[in-house]
UniProtKB/TrEMBL annotation:
The keyword Transmembrane helix applies. The keyword Oxidoreductase does not apply. The chain crosses the membrane at residues 6-32, 44-61, 100-122, 134-158, 170-193, 199-218, 238-258, 264-284. Gene3D superfamilies: 3.30.450.40, Histidine kinase-like ATPase, C-terminal domain. The lineage of its organism: Bacteria, Pseudomonadati, Pseudomonadota, Alphaproteobacteria, Sphingomonadales. The gene is prsK. InterPro entries: GAF (IPR003018), GAF-like_dom_sf (IPR029016), HATPase_C_sf (IPR036890), HATPase_dom (IPR003594), His_kinase_dom (IPR005467), Sig_transdc_His_kin-like_C (IPR004358), XrtA/PrsK (IPR014265). It comes from the Bacteria. This is histidine kinase. GO terms for molecular function: protein histidine kinase activity.
Length: 706
């Protein structure tokens, strides 16, 4: 068989009261050794909690209908009034505020009257009318005590000093829970003329809530534990509350109209519902309405206008959005500033070629006409010096705090939609200015707006400056690559020019000799071939790449090199083994010619430069030895193969670097030994063709196995 409804309420009341008694007694025992954390009211709170536990037990034992339960409730209320008085003493207000003691005494007197009247009702034989009147007076006494308790709790917290409020926050909240619940309970009982069993069943829950708040107040982390709803949650909550109030008002008016009766009243009721619904559909979703609502909530419910964590996260997402579908950086900068002030559009003005500010980006503002010179150069110093955020409405109203009127162009003042100017300052230099369009909600700027916009402006200025530096660096790298290519070209042309100059000088002495003329034609033909090859290699200069590798005879390479220096008798071929290597002949000849020419340049006139080629293990070894000035170990280690570093007057410093890169491209190695005053020895090692074939076959087999 199922339980009857009265039995269910009885069991709920019993469970809640027992749980409240256990919670109150447990907290009293826990607080006792740490009661000093509650100030002068610690002992009183422990006593009040124990009496509250006894009252809960009396409630559970008698279902709240006995004189004993009423007596326990009165004793409980008196104990909590003492707690309130002791809490006033925490900052000395029990002595300075004279009305407190009389109020507490008056409320205690009302509780005593309540007990006396209750005992009279129980003990004396009274008729029903007198008993009902007495019960109403008893409920009135309870209401007086609860209202007085709430007034005391409100004055306790509202009049406390800033230093004392953190300690009072949780005890006053606990007392407010208890008195507010009793106020509603006894109000319902007074108006309804009977005891609300269903509502009274939750008195134990109110006690548990009060005990929980007191436990927080006695804990160590009470000062940092606060209810801090986010602005989004607050906005949604108040939106739902507003909708609920609207619906209740609509239903109430509709019910009031329905009481009039008749067809006309029905028509008015339907018309009102239609107009109210249409108004809600049009007004509530509007951006202006939502903007006004947010401003009102931020102004009256929060200490600060902005949720700085949320603003910073949104700012970071806007600026950091660099995907393929992202807006350009300039538009993201404008949006980042506009989102803070809830502005629908904006402009970004940055420095042009002549120092004045020009339009760099526009966000959701295509209709505004921006002059070619948006801000003259003479006005920029004001913003750099003052870092001043200009409210254009102030200028239109005739206000001129710092002389900003003379520095704001007329086209901005004339456009009524232009609202504010936010300078972007980076290391005391004006990077740009963001122009904000007017917000949907008309409001003025305050100190919090100015501080946040100024900080955001500095951050955005650093982003713009960094972006400009990266673009300048990329452009410099492109120019550097171009200069490198030109330097390599000039180096090869310089070598060819040296050979042609030498040929011209010798032609003055030996032009009548047939052998010289034949050599001259050969040299000219080789120079022309080199110039054509140079033009073909322009696209790969500076990378150390070679066109292709093939089998080359070392004897052919040395013969070509020696033919280029036939007019330089100091160049001597000491050993010339005929080996087959895998290389690019033209690149190898270019390397050897460069090294031989360096040997000639570093040696005194007539000093020999030796060239030799011999087999060395699995490769061919080309050696170029001179007895010139030599190089220091530090120069060889740190500067010899570094581009654009040279010890020659007018040298480009890229020959050794290019030679090493070309040798590496042919799978070889370039080595150098040098001593100052004694000379240098360069060794070029190129693998033999047989070695290359073995390596390629081994690699192919590995790939097939894999």
């Amino acid at each position: 068989m199922g339980l009857a409804l009265p039995q269910i309420w009885y069991l709920l009341t019993l469970a809640f009261d027992v749980a409240g008694a256990i919670a109150a007694a447990t907290l009293a025992i826990w607080i006792w050794p740490r009661r000093d954390s509650l100030g002068q009211a610690g002992t009183a709170i422990v006593l009040a909690l124990l009496l509250t536990a006894i009252w809960c037990i009396a409630q559970a034992a008698s279902h709240g209908n006995s004189f004993g339960a009423a007596f326990a409730e009165s004793v409980r209320n008196l104990a909590w009034l003492i707690v309130i008085y002791r809490l006033f003493a925490s900052d000395g207000r029990h002595a300075s505020l004279a009305p407190i003691r009389p109020v507490v005494i008056a409320l205690a007197f009302v509780e005593v009257l309540h007990l006396a009247l209750g005992m009279a009702v129980v003990r004396l034989p009274l008729d029903w009318d007198i008993t009902r009147t007495a019960l109403n007076v008893i409920v009135m006494f309870r209401l007086l005590v609860t209202v007085g308790g709430l007034v005391l709790v409100h004055n306790l917290y509202a009049g406390a000093s800033r230093d004392v409020r953190p300690a009072l926050r949780w005890p006053t909240a606990a007392l407010a829970v208890m008195f507010v619940f009793d106020l509603n309970l006894y109000t319902i009982a007074y108006l309804g003329g009977h005891w609300p069993v269903e509502f009274a069943a939750a008195r134990g829950l109110a006690t548990i809530a009060m005990v929980g708040l007191l436990a927080i107040g006695a804990s160590k982390g009470r000062d940092v534990l606060r209810l801090r709803p986010s602005r989004a949650v607050t906005f949604q909550t108040f939106s739902l509350l507003l909708i609920g109030v609207y619906l209740v008002a609509m239903v109430g008016v509709a019910q009031w109209l329905s009481y009039a009766g008749g067809d006309f009243a029905r028509l008015v009721e339907l018309g009102f519902l239609t107009i109210a619904s249409a108004t809600a559909v049009l007004v509530l979703p509007s951006k202006r309405m939502r903007g006004w609502f947010k401003v009102a909530l931020a102004k009256h419910l929060f200490q600060h206008r902005y949720d700085y964590r949320e603003e910073w996260l949104r700012f970071t997402r806007t600026i950091g959005n660099s995907g393929s579908a992202a807006m350009p950086l300039g538009e993201r900068v404008v949006q980042a500033v506009a989102d803070i002030a809830d502005c629908p559009a904006g402009l970004l003005l940055t420095a042009g070629d002549h120092g004045d500010l020009t339009l760099a980006a526009r966000w959701n503002w295509p209709e505004i006409a921006v002059p070619a010179t948006a801000f003259p150069t003479k006005s920029l110093g004001f913003f750099e010096r003052e870092n001043f955020i200009v409210d254009l409405d102030d200028i239109r109203a005739g206000h001129d705090d710092r002389g900003e009127t003379d520095h704001v162009p007329a086209w901005l003042v004339a456009d009524s939609r232009a609202w504010a100017l936010v300078p972007l300052i980076h290391y005391e230099r004006l990077v740009g200015i963001v122009v904000l369009a007017r917000s949907a909600v008309k409001r003025g700027f305050d100190w919090e707006d100015f501080d946040l916009l100024r900080v955001v402006g500095q951050q955005l200025a650093s982003y713009l400056a960094e972006n400009a530096s990266q673009e300048a660096l990329a452009e410099a790298r492109r120019f550097d690559d171009f200069h490198r290519r030109i330097a390599f070209v000039m180096h090869d042309i310089k070598n060819l020019a040296s050979q042609l100059s030498l040929l011209a000088r010798n032609a003055e002495l030996h032009a009548e000799k047939k052998e010289f003329r034949d050599d001259m034609l050969l040299t000219l033909r080789n120079s022309a071939d080199k110039l054509n090859a140079l033009l073909a290699r322009l696209s790969r200069y500076g990378t150390g790449a070679v066109e292709r590798l093939e089998q080359v005879s070392t004897r052919d390479v040395t013969a070509s090199v020696m033919a280029m220096f036939h007019s330089a008798p100091q160049v001597t071929l000491t050993e010339n083994q005929d080996l087959t290597i895998t290389a690019n002949r033209h690149s190898l000849e270019q390397v050897l010619v460069h090294l031989v020419q360096n040997g000639i340049d570093a040696s005194a006139p007539g000093e020999p430069v030796f060239l030799s080629v011999a087999m060395d293990g699995l490769g061919a070894r080309f050696e170029i030895v001179d007895s010139g000035c030599g190089m220091s170990p530090e120069f060889v280690r740190t500067r010899l193969f570094k581009p654009f570093v040279s010890t020659k007057n007018g040298g480009f410093g890229i020959g050794a670097f290019e030679a090493r890169e070309l040798v590496r491209a042919m799978r070889g190695r370039l080595e150098v030994e040098s001593r100052e005053g004694l000379g240098s020895r360069f060794v070029v090692r190129i693998p033999l063709s047989a070695t290359t074939d073995v390596y390629q076959n081994f690699t192919s087999n590995e790939q097939r196995v894999a």
